[in-house]
Structures are given as C-alpha cells and as structure tokens.
Amino acid sequence: MTMSKPARAVGIEISGVNLSYGSTHVLKDIALSIRPGEFFAFLGPSGCGKTTLLRLIAGFAQAQTGQVLLDGQDVAPLPPWKRDVGMVFQSYALWPHMTVAKNVAFGLEERRLPRGEIDRRVAQALELVGLSAFAERRPAQLSGGQQQRVAVARTIAIEPKVLLLDEPLSNLDAKMRVSVRRELRALQQRLGLTTIFVTHDQEEANTICDRIAVMDGGKIQQVGTPMELYEHPANLFVANFLGSANILDEKSGVPIPPGKRLVFRPQHAALSAPESAALRGPVTHREFLGATVRYGVRLGESEVLIETPFQSGSELRSVGDQVGVDLPPRRMLFLPA
Fold first, then answer.
1. Do 259 and 152 fall within a single domain?
2. DSSP 8-state assignment for residue 168
3. How far apart are alpha carbons 148 and 123 in whole angstroms?
4. What are the tens digits of pLDDT across the range 96-133?
5. pLDDT (mean) for 284-299
6. What is the C-alpha radius of gyration for the chain, rounded to an integer number of angstroms?
7. Which of 118, 154, 155, 278 would suit a FRET pair with 91, their CA atoms being 20 to 30 Å apart?
8. How far, in Å, CA of 50 to CA of 54, rounded?
9. What is the pLDDT of residue 1?
10. Where is the ABC transporter domain positioned along the sequence (predicted)?
11. CB-based burial of residue 47 (10 Å sphere; 0-12 exposed, 13-18 middle, 19+ buried)?
12. Does some domain include residue 1?
C-alpha cells in the first residue's frame, strides 16, 4: 500500500510582506517565489524571522502588508485549517495519552471524514514513514526519531498541498539527525510535496534542500541553491554564515579596493614557501581533521584559515613556521563592507 502523490504540486508566491509585533518589525518587505514540488529552506540565526515567516504561510501569524499566494490563491483571509497546509512543529506536539494511530487520525477526525477513509489514510501514512508496527504504542514508548516520524505521518495523512517543517530535527542527537533528514528528503521526493524547512543549521539545509533563503534581521539576504550561495555569496553575512570564510580588510596587508572586503574559503588558498609568495606570515595554530589539515596563518593584523589535503607521510607545518599564502584570483571575492 502506498500513498499517491498529490495531483499537482503547488507554488507559493510571497510579495511585499511586512509583519510587526508592536514596535518590533519582524519581517521586512519579504518577496519570495517557491516552485511547485520544491524542497525549500528558510535558513538563518535565531531571531532572524524564519519561523515567523513559516507561521505566516501556515496562518498562525498575520502580516500588516503584502500577499501570500498558495497555488495562485491569496490565503490571507483563510484560517489555518482551510489552507491545505500541514505543519510539523519543533516539539512534535503529540498527544501523550493517545496511541500512534490515534495521533495520526486526530486531524482527520477533526475534519469529520468517514471512518473507513480515516483508517485507510492512517495506515498509508504509517506505512510511508515505516511505523506500521508501532500503531498501538504511545509516544513515550518511542524514540525521538520515531516521534518525529509520527508527527510527519499525522501531517501527511491530511494530504496537504504544502508541508511546513519547523526545525523538526532539533530534538534529535547528531547521528539520528543525519538519518532522519535523509528519510525526510526521500519522503518529500516520493510525495512530490512542496516543502519548506526552517533551520539554523546550514549543513541540514545544504544536504536536503533544493534552494535556500538565507535570512537575517527580518530580511531575505539571498536566495539560491546551496552551491550558488557558497560559491557566490551576495554579502558578508551570507559568506560568513554558510561555511567557513576568511574575510580580510586592508589591515591584512592585502591590496583591497576601498569600501570592500576580500572573501575566500579556507580550501581555496594554498600554503607555499614564504620567499616566493606575495603574502606571508607565521603559522598560529594547526588542527588535524583527518582528510585535511587546518592551519591558522597571521597576515598583518588578521588571521586566516587555510585547509590543505592530508596525505600520509607528508610534512606538516609547525606553529611558528613562516609560510606563504597563495590566493588564486578566480577564488577571490570582493564584497561591500
């Protein structure tokens, strides 16, 4: 038994959205287009507005200006239960006194569907998340990963047009997070659901999402694929938030145009003999990471990180050694300060 895909994945269009709580401007002129069937992420630090934006789409928050279109329909006048949107909360919000099957059936019973239809959808949803054998257990008898899958099953059982995930992996340990996020991605692809995933963890967003909106200060800083954001950040915030980045000003001794910063990734530079390099300085620290070795190098008043591949038997630099730093021009980004 398998749950069929929605007849047609839907897109989401957000334009001119501003949302304030009192004098606090939480969302600032948000404009965004999410494609049908896309696995999309809102990524940013705590307080950036990503969860508020998700709640706005779900109907749990109301903007002062702007539109949210779901499949071309303005959903602002609609309450949450009429938006055909399913939301998985960070806490999972499972009923502790109900069995797994009853938890999954809850939303269907609230919609007063026929008993036979409810039983069919519950069985399908539990099979899809691999929990058919756990139908009569209660949440306290499940692991964190299993509880998370119950929350997903409860949401997909109502057959929403859009799946919203609010930091659903934050309560799992590191190993379980990797496993469950792969399950989520596989599930999303099988269902073909347009899905939005809120997280502050760049690794989570990079590994499972098609595109990402990086948010900070209530604004969308940049939208793109994980590779686009990493290789071509639009500003210093995006460069620094996605992966490790060296950000240098004129105090480093590197010639930099006025009003800009030089940005490069640790693996995009190389160490060389100091006498042959335009940039040179002492090694300040060294970290062995297995496949790579990370060095800190002092350049003027700045310190940069350089990662080099580790090969067995290769000679390592020591703290205090003078080294050269080679920067390929094509890997150098100059961004507004």
1. no
2. T
3. 17
4. 999 999 999 988 888 889 999 999 999 988 987 888 99
5. 94
6. 24
7. 118
8. 6
9. 41
10. 12-242
11. middle
12. no
CATH assignment at residue 202: 3.40.50.300
Q: Strand runs (DSSP E) across the chain, as ranges?
A: 12-21, 24-34, 39-43, 65-70, 73-74, 85-88, 162-166, 194-199, 211-216, 219-224, 246-248, 260-264, 270-272, 279-288, 292-299, 302-309, 322-326, 333-336
269-297: burial string, b at 16+ Cβ within 10 Å, e else: bebeeeeebebbbebeeeeeeeeebbbbb
| Bridge partners, residue 18, by sequence | 65
Say if residue 57 is in the same domain as residue 191. Answer: yes
What's the CATH number where 306 sits?
Answer: 2.40.50.140
Question: How much is the average pLDDT of 54-70?
Answer: 94
Question: In sequence order, what are the residues at sequence separation of 6 or more whose Cβ sits closer than 8 angstroms to the Cβ of residue 22?
Answer: none
At 123, give phi and psi (nearest 5°).
-60, -40
- Are the C-beta atoms of residues 166 and 107 closer than 8 Å to each other? no
Q: Maximum Cα–Cα distance for the chain, whole Å?
A: 80
On the CB side of 26, how many CA atoms lie within 13 Å of its CA?
19
CA distance 211 to 35: 10
Q: Backbone dihedral region of 145: left (phi > 0), alpha (psi from -120 to 50 degrees) or beta?
A: alpha
Residues 72 and 218 in one domain: yes
Domain total of the chain = 2
Number of Cβ atoms within 10 Å of the Cβ of 144: 15
| CA distance from start to end of the chain | 56
Domain that holds residue 265: 254-336
Chain mean position to CA 1: 31
The residues with which 88 forms a beta bridge, in sequence order, are: 165
In this prediction, residue 2 has a pLDDT band, given cuts at 50, 70 and 90, of very low
CA–centroid distance for 203 within its chain: 7
Q: Which residues contact 7 (CB under 8 A, 6 or more apart)?
A: none
d(C-alpha 28, C-alpha 167), whole Å: 22
| CA 88, chain centre distance (Å) | 15
User: pTM of the entire structure?
Assistant: 0.84
